[in-house]
Amino acid sequence: MASELVRFTVAVPEGLLEEFDEFTARRGSHVNRSEAVRDLMREQIAEHEVDDPDAEVVGSITMVYDHHVVGLSGALDEVQHDHMGQIVSTMHVHLDHHNCLEVLAVRGKSAAIHELADLLLGTKGVRYGRLSCMATTSAIEAGH
């Protein structure tokens, strides 16, 4: 059941409101100020919840690495096999003769997902990496 909408007033500098309206317009004709503010509120709540080690999260781990580094592919594969319960899917792209892009879709407890990301991204030979995740609990459930 959807909760009742509550109206409130927010005072912002005119320039900020103009930029926000431009941002909202770029998102499409179906998005108005109210929906844009609700989206931002849900996003901030979900980002904060990731700090709870027991929060259920979903996300992605993105890595760029040199597959010519001796033992790197095997080390990454070993970590991934040890964490199959948290990895939902993977995508591997050959960027050039040396570099590969790998993206892992992940799901699980925040602490376990952060540990997995640290293990992968801290592996010698990984040139770039980032974990992006959000909680799947109250922010998503509360936002309609």
Structure, described:
By secondary structure, this protein is α+β, with helices and mostly antiparallel strands. It has a single domain, classed as 2-Layer Sandwich (Alpha-Beta Plaits). The protein has five helices and four strands, in the order ααβαββαβα. The protein has helices spanning 14-26, 33-49, 72-82, 110-121, 138-142; strands spanning 56-66, 87-94, 99-109, 126-135. The protein is elongated and about 60 Å long.
Features:
single chain, 144 residues, alpha+beta, Alpha-Beta Plaits, four-stranded antiparallel beta sheet, 5 helices, 40% helix, 28% strand
Shape: elongated
Helical/strand content category: alpha+beta
Number of helices: 5
Provide the CATH topology.
Alpha-Beta Plaits
Order of helices and strands: HHEHEEHEH
Mean pLDDT: 89
Distance between the termini: 10 Å
Oligomer: single chain
Draw up the topology in text.
Elements: H1 14-26, H2 33-49, E1 56-66, H3 72-82, E2 87-94, E3 99-109, H4 110-121, E4 126-135, H5 138-142
Antiparallel strand pairs: 1-3, 1-4, 2-3
